[in-house]
Design goal:
Shape: globular
Structural class: mainly alpha
Organism: Streptomyces johnsoniae
Membrane topology: Multi-pass membrane protein
Order of helices and strands: HHHHHHHHHHHHHH
Pfam family, one: FecCD
Number of helices: 14
Strand content: under 5%
Keywords: Cell membrane, Membrane, Transmembrane, Transmembrane helix, Transport
Protein name: Iron ABC transporter permease
Length: 347
């Protein structure tokens, strides 16, 4: 019998959090998000005083500072919705696969969506904003199925490491194919080279309006899958014993995540690591109950991506660093840390 003094402490993510603690953290997260939103409209190549921010939010555009705030509002809204979508999709993917390394970027889902959009534009003349979203979702779905199939081959099935390796290889291959498609086409190379990195620059309420219905549907599917994901976390056999139709439940939740990834990639490009970092951080605050984890991941994803966009605008004034680069700088060390942790086999 293990001595009390040498007993391994429970994982922080596995400890059940009281409801009042979760509500407190939710309030902190909402207030943090509000401050980040305020920073997003105040900081950039031109710093805007608080008085001008309030005036611009009230509809005034009398000064350059107030006009700058007005232009930053759609960018802030886009960063919020894309960050929420990627954070929520990452939490669902980790729940569906029971894989702590699951992330739309790491598993190749975002790059599959990018390849589909670039191919459709270059060879089929795709111009419709709504068409972008449908094509991106199709590419994301095909890529997700392909990576999961490859990662499931061999002994042990779809282990986290095998899925991560399959996703990394697929992402690298798809990135090369995107470059091969874009380079000969000078008419689209300039715009797609920036889009390929991932960013929220050039946002407008019109662009947001095209993608918002798809994000709303994907978000609803994911949130409604919370109880099912809790059952799947117990293992397939026990979930089936509790009355869950395991294959259907897993497929439904995965569809919601794919819709979110495809829609987000269509409008902002392949932004990585948000779906990896956010769910792990939120588990420390909420535990593993997906009824709490999924809304927290959406809010934290919105906060992370918006903050990354602010950092990208501030560190390289008057130019800017695309948000996809900033999230990669944040997420890559975190990914290495997760891989190096002992006993990282499943959630």
């Amino acid at each position: 019998m293990t001595a009390l003094g040498t007993r391994r402490p429970p994982d922080a993510a596995m400890v059940r959090r009281p409801a009042r603690v979760r509500l407190l953290w939710l309030l902190v997260l909402v207030l943090t998000l509000a401050l980040i939103m305020l920073a997003s409209v105040a900081f950039g190549s031109r710093t805007v005083p608080f008085s001008d921010v309030l005036a611009a939010l009230g509809g005034a555009e009398d000064t350059l500072e107030q006009a700058a705030v007005t232009k930053r509002i759609p960018r802030t809204v886009l960063a919020l919705v894309i960050g929420a979508a990627l954070g929520l999709a990452g939490a669902v993917m980790q729940g569906v696969t029971r894989n702590p390394l699951a992330d739309p970027g790491i598993l190749g889902v975002n790059m599959g969506a990018s390849l589909a959009v670039v191919t459709a534009v270059a060879y089929f003349g795709l111009t419709s904003p709504t068409g972008y979203v449908w094509v991106a979702m199709a590419g994301a779905a095909v890529s997700a199925v392909f990576v999961y199939t490859v990662g499931s081959l061999g002994r042990g099935g779809a282990t986290p490491l095998k899925l991560a390796l399959a996703g990394a290889a697929t992402s690298a291959a798809f990135a090369s194919l995107v470059t091969a498609v874009v380079l000969p086409r000078n008419d689209i190379a300039g715009s797609f080279r920036l889009w390929q990195i991932g960013g929220v620059g050039g946002a407008s309420f019109e662009r947001i309006g095209h993608v918002l219905p798809f994000l709303a549907v994907g978000c609803a599917i994911c949130l409604l899958s919370a109880r099912t994901l809790n059952s799947l976390a117990l293992g397939d056999e026990l979930a089936a014993g509790l009355g869950e139709r395991v294959a259907l439940a897993r497929a439904t939740a995965a569809v919601g995540a794919v819709v979110l990834c495809g829609a987000a990639t269509a409008v902002a490009g392949p932004i990585g690591f948000v779906g990896l970092v956010v769910p792990h951080a939120c588990r420390l605050l909420t535990g593993v109950d997906h009824r709490w984890l999924l809304p927290f991941s959406a809010l934290a994803g919105a906060a992370l991506l918006t903050a990354a966009d602010v950092v990208g605008r501030v560190v390289a004034r008057p130019a800017e660093v695309d948000v996809g680069i900033v999230t990669a700088l944040i997420g890559a060390p975190f990914f290495i840390h997760i891989v190096r942790r002992q006993k990282v086999r499943a959630l």
